[in-house]
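Teaching note: in complex prediction, the entire set of molecules is handled at once rather than each chain in isolation. The prompt given to students was simply: 'Predict the structure of this complex.' The entities are:
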Amino acid sequence: MSTFVAVDIGGTHIRVAAYGQDNITPITHKRTRSHAKEPGTFDRLVKAIESAWPTDRTVKAIGMASPGPLDPKSGVVLATPNIPEWHDFPLTEKLSQHFGVPAHLDNDANLAALGEWKFGAGRGHHDLLYLTISTGIGGGVIVRDRLLHGYHGLAAELGHVTVLADGPVCSCGYEGHLEALASGPAIVRYIREQLEAGQKSELSSVEDLNARTVAEAAGRGDALARSAFARAGKYLGIGVASFLHTFDPSIVIFGGGVSQSGPLLFEPFETSLRTHVFNPRYLENLVITTAALGDDAGLLGALALAQMASE
Ligand SMILES: [Zn+2]
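The expected output is the structure of the full assembly:
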C-alpha cells in the first residue's frame, strides 16, 4: 500500500500528515508553529515531518503546499513575504535529500484548487476555478483535469487581475487589482474611507474592524456595512466574469474566510456576474459553491500532488 506525506507550510503554522492510498483520513498528523519570520524554518519543517513520518510503512513521496511565488517544476521557493529567509530556496531538493524520497511543491492556492477537485466540492468536474478570499485573494485553475501552471509556473494569480483602472493600491503595489477591491482588508479600507468622509455607521465605534465585524454589522442592517459587501461583490463579479470568458469552467469554488459571508457578498456578486458575462451560455449549468475541505484544502491538495506525481 502506498503512503504519502503531505505538508502545508503557512506563515503561522506548519502542518504535516501522512495518508494511505485512497483515504483522506490521516494516519498521523502534526501541527506546529512555523515562526516563519525567525531563522531556522527549514529545520523546524524537517522536525515536523520527522515527527509525523509513519515508522511502519514505506513513504512513496512528499507533497508540499507553500506560499508563493515559487517554481513548481524545480521546487524552488523564489521569495515569500511570510518566510523571509527563503529566497531562491531549493525546497524539494533539500527535503528529497534528507528523506530519500521524491518531494513535490506547488503554491497553496493551486493546491487548494487541486484538493477541492480531487477530494472536495469539485469532484467530477474537469474544468474548475477556485478562488480563496481572505486577507488576500488567491486562485487556482484546473483545465481538463490538469492544474494550469503556465510557462513560468506562475499561474494563476487571479487576485492580481485589474478590475478597476486607477483603483486602490493592492498588496502587490499595483492599482485596481481584484484583491484590492474584494479581500477582507479591501472591505475594511473602504469602511474606514467612508467613515472619514463622514458616513454614519455603527462601525464608527468598532475598534477591531475586520470582514467578520463588518459582516455582523451588515446583518444588523447597517447601511455602510452592507454597501461595503455590495461593492466587494460587484468587483468580484467583474473579475469572475472575465475568468469565465478566459477559462470557461463548469464550477467556481470559493474558499477563505470572507467567502463565509453568505448572501451579503454572493447576492451582489451574482447580479454583477450576470451583468458582466457577455454571453449567457457561460452560466448554463455553472456550479457556484463554497469550498468543502476548509483548512485541510492545502494539505489534501499536497496529498493529491504527491499521488498524481507518483502515478
Ligand atoms: Zn495585486
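Point out the following to students. The radius of gyration is 20 Å. Residues 160, 170, 172, 174, 177, 179 surround zinc ion (CB under 6 Å).
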